[in-house]
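Encoded backbone
================
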Amino acid sequence: MKKNVNRESLFSQLILFLRRADLFYFSVLGVLFFVIFRANILVPLVNEDFDLNAFGKTTTQLFDACVHQYLGWNARIGDILSLILSTIPIDIYNTFNAVATLLFILVMVYIAKIPLNRVSKIARVNAVITAFFLLVFLVYRPGEVFLWRTGSANYFYPALFILLFSIPWVHLFFNGRDVFSEIKTRLLRNAGSLLYIVTGIVIGHANENSSPVIALFLVINLTVQFLRREKIRFWMIGSFVSLSIGVILLLFGPSTQHRIEFYSNVFGVSSSPVSLFLDNVISVTYSFLHFGVYVFVLMVFTYFLVKSKSKKIFLRFSILYFLLALFCAFILAAAPYQEPRAYFISSVFLILGVIHCLYYLQDYEKEVLFLTGIVIIFYSPFLLGEYGNMQKRHYWQLERIRVIEESLDDTGNILIPKMPMTSSQLVLVGGTEDESIRMSRYFHLSQDRRVLIEK
């Protein structure tokens, strides 16, 4: 009996220490940064990265490439950003991307706690760790979203911009708080509002399935403000209008119509629009339920543990972000082709719901801390295995590039080893026929020479 008391006392002391120690929180952030940064280092150029680097790096070349991309192929801000990121030296990019990924986690944790008055330090640590592991295991091929330079520009960074853009609206929706009115200096307040309004156009170009949903969230906010008979301020109307303009330019621009026609031809879409839409609805439903059902069950379970006075806030947040995730997913049914990475923003909204659930389990800190420890112990070997796969692929790609560089002065085609295929969450795809063409362009080979990949 005495041993049990001592064990309980030691565990209670550990809980008390963690509650008081900001050092532990920042240590966790430091460890996560190292893990993320190390993963970034192990990612070589792959697929479209070679094309983007072949455009050139002068200001004029970059501007011309951005205009060509916006008008001719894709109006997403991600495609423009991918061109810009391609000009950054790899070491600087790896550091920048690791910092941005950690910021993304912190922004998610912050948004999930906005409706709450207070969260404990240990709950904050649990939220950060949970967000990290869910982004690794819930997101489809997170390596292609966070680590791959082209993929991160098209999915990760737009999602980060969306979350940052949504913060004033989340405060307004749950707390009735106008963050811009709290800026005391009038000049700074007006400048901040105008800058925020301008960014709405950029957010409107984020993605075809996320930008319209954010516009819907703003409509809900404005409606609530009207029903509350609260003052609708200039930044609210202005940011909604600018966001809507961005969405319209994205959805109905000539480059988007061209891309729709291209994918329709590539994937042989010959059935009627109604039949295609119904088939897509079935496909999207399956994909969403693949991860959405678990979050829904967790939300229902947490609801019965939440104190009565907090149930209303919990329901509002959970239902809001579950519906936003649902809408982002089902908009994809209107597209001729569903890229699995396009479900990323839906995953993010669902993870926000999970983190919010965790904050309501503060009365069960010991149990949650224990489960967090189990998760870390259970999944650490998996992450180490992923690192091993990434390292092998990294050195394999470096060897291929070495072979090409040593053969540049020779004549004839350049034969490089085939990239080994691995079943992995973080290891990026590559080694396709398209990649050989892109590598040929990247190394500026003449038209009668090509990089060939061994069969």
Remarks:
- The CA atoms of residues 76 and 426 lie 24 Å apart.
- The chain has a mean pLDDT of 82.
- The first strand starts at residue 414 and ends at 416.
- The beta strands are 414-416, 451-453.
